[in-house]
Amino acid sequence: MEEASLQRRHASRTRNEGTMAIGRNAASQTDAAAVGFPWNSWRPLLECKLCRSITFSVFVLILAIESVILVPSALIFYSDELRRLEEKAIATVGAALTIDSGSLSPAYLQPRVSRLMRDTQILGLSVLRRDTSILARAGNADFDDFNIEAVLQDPRQVARRRILNGRCYDIAWSQNINGTPLILLARMDSSSVNTALLAFVLRIAGLVALIVAFVTTGTMLVLYRSVLNPILRLRRSMLAAAAHPNRAHDFRISERPGDELGDVFEAHNQMLRRVAESKLADRLRAEEQARFLVRHDTLTGLPNRTFFLQHLRQVLQAACQRRENVVVFAVNLAAFRAINDALSQAAGDQVLREAARRLNDGLQARQFVARLGGDDFGIAWAGVIQPPESAAQAEQILAKLSTPVDLNGTEVQLHARIGIAHSKGDCVDPETLLHDANLALNRARTDTRTPYQFFAPSMTEEARRRQEIEQELSYALEHDGLQLYYQPKVDLDSAADEPHLAACEALIRWRHPRWGVLPPAQFIPVAEATGLVLRLGDWALHAACAQICSWQAERRTPPRIAVNLTAAQFRDPDLPERVGRILRACSIDPGLLELEITESAAMEDAANTVKTLCALRKLGVRLAIDDFGTGYSSLSYLRTFEIDSIKIDKSFVDDIGRDPNADAICEAIIGLGRSLGKRVVAEGVETDTQLEFLRSRRCHEAQGYLFGRPVPAAAIAEKLARLPSVPASNLPVTRVR
To answer: Which fold has domain 483-643+707-735?
Structure first.
């Protein structure tokens, strides 16, 4: 049936082509009749680029061969003509100067030489003795630059040269005239030789052109009929198949010559059939690949988020009918960004592929793993599953991922966080269940006590509140809804019984219209998670510097103000530039500003910390390490850090007098700071016992509720108002009242 259909289509196409050919032939015959020349037989040959190319190549080749033959012939012809001109000149001059008797005097020679100028092709003639003295000369006889040395040395030699682009031909020769050896120099008109050469070349070139045209035409007619015409048919078939590859077999060549080209046509027809079959197979594979790519992640090969939600919808519907449970594990690779930053994106991709392989290996029945995006993965598990089983499964996932990954010789330790959500037999939608798992994952990220968390309904309210905080915090930044409070730092080195004010720490507060004054702990984590922390940090720096400037304008002596930098601020490479811009804008002494960096932020990238601290130090600000003792400081780096002071964390100060270990740690930190030339500040001092201990160990400064809670700037200004005005550059110590 298919073969019959193909034959019918071919017959129809043949008829159509025949009709078109008849029309073209009729038109061509009409044109040919108009001009009286059979163009129809020549049109395909003239329109064929390949024919024209081969014709031109054959023409150039034959022309080159004939040219190789013509050039030597022309040179020989030219040389012979000059030789004849030379022999004629020598014979003519010798006959004119020969006399029967008498001496060859100038008076006798000059008339004969002059007569030669009128009657021959000689343009100039000089007659010289052997000593090159001139006996006679006439015409254009300027031979000063003519080298006749060879003729003087050997009388048999003839010197020759062409001048004026070949229009003149000079010769010099030696000849005995009446027994007297003379040197004769003649300049002859050789333009007739050039004319003869041109005529010779034109005759030969015309003959060559006729031969080339005849040979080329004959060759091309034979070549066109036997080779080029079949090739053009093959070309038309190939172009049509290329334009319509899905039905390439429709353009097979039915008529084949009986020579080698017939084998080529047969191979071409088979190729077209295979092309059609291959295109069909390619289309099927492409459709299958497209379906796969729509539902899978290209990097790991795991199902993607779309496929995960589709699968989750199916298993939730089945679980709802069976009263079973579906558990979703939202898995995140902690610190994955640090791997990308430190080792390159290619290393990060390798980590993702390895994590995907580990999660996919050893899957239990009715478990489904997918990459949800970035460094997030999801696992769906359907069945009668209780929370203890989910916890055990989470432990297994963490164990799989905890094995170090080898990245070209560098071992990378993976850490994961997991959020777990149960459907609990309820008929929930997949988006809600995955959202619940992500909320639990967010809690696991912030709560370092356990690497996985189960979803609780309260997390939804917390997420809603975090979103509300994010929106309202952005509004507060833009509409002056934030305020700085200041907590005093006192000087313990003073001999006075009552400590003196050494500095203040600026602490940000949010005056919320519904929730009242909020401390940083309630909104800083949200700012860090949403990227608002940089704007918040810049606001705090500017507000603190502006307050110092305001106190100076009121002729008060401002204390040193300490401002905390978040880890995100400290990682920002533009931090020194921004601090410098704020200092210049407020026109304050840089020594009145102190920047506090947490120990963990400083040690996150110690090498970069050194560079940043040096840049800040050049601005003139003071620098402190906050929460000292709670992180993992290296003493070697602490020695190189450009800092002025270290702060003992409140967790150690709280246990002074109750825990000997806390006493020992505080004493060691104080001793270390003094040994390194750094000021030591104890924070969280609330009892007289703690104060006496710190004083006895020679701690420089202290901060805590014992000396004052954080208060607005106005309260600090009241204390400053009771003190005499002193230039700010003296950095005086004021007494707390």
So the answer is: TIM Barrel (3.20.20)
Verdict on whether the full-model pTM lies above 0.85: no
The first and second tokens of residue 104, run together, are: 């060859």
How far is residue 388's CA from residue 712's CA, in Å, rounded to a whole number? 51
- Close Cβ partners of 390 (under 8 Å, ≥ 6 residues apart): 327, 329, 381, 420, 422, 454
CATH class of 296-455: alpha beta
In contact, 492 and 670? CB cutoff 8 Å: no
Tokens in use for 253? 């060549």
Task: Give me the count of residues in the chain.
Answer: 737
Torsion of CA 417, 423, 429, 433, to 10 degrees: -10
What are the residues whose beta carbons fall under 8 Å from the beta carbon of 242, sequence distance 6 or more? none
DSSP class of 132: -
Strands annotated E in 579-678: 593-598, 622-628, 645-648
Tokens standing for residue 205: 């070139």
Q: Name the most confidently modeled range: 105-114, 129-138, 154-163, 542-551.
A: 542-551
* Alpha-carbon span 508 to 511, nearest angstrom: 10
Tens digit of each residue's pLDDT (9 = 90 or more) over 412-471 = 888 899 999 998 767 788 999 999 999 999 888 877 778 899 988 888 877 788 788 888
Plot region of 51 (φ>0 → left; ψ -120 to 50 → alpha; else → beta): alpha
CB of 372 within 8 A of CB of 378? yes
Domain ranges of the chain: 1-41, 96-198, 296-455, 483-643+707-735
- Write out the two tokens for 661: 């270990």
User: Which pLDDT tens digit goes with each residue over 232-245?
Assistant: 777 778 788 777 77
pLDDT at 36 over 50: no
pLDDT at 722: 63
- CA dist 150 and 159 (Å) reads 7
Give the confidence band of 564 by pLDDT, cuts at 50, 70, 90: very high
Q: Is the pLDDT of residue 126 over 80?
A: yes
> Residues 703, 685: contact at Cβ < 8 Å?
yes
Question: Whole-angstrom Cα distance, residue 12 to residue 4?
Answer: 12
What's the CATH code, domain 96-198? 3.30.450.190
DSSP string of 570-588, one letter each residue: HH-TTHHHHHHHHHHHHT-
**Tokens (6 digits) for 474:** 């952005």
Calpha distance 716→708 (Å, rounded) = 11
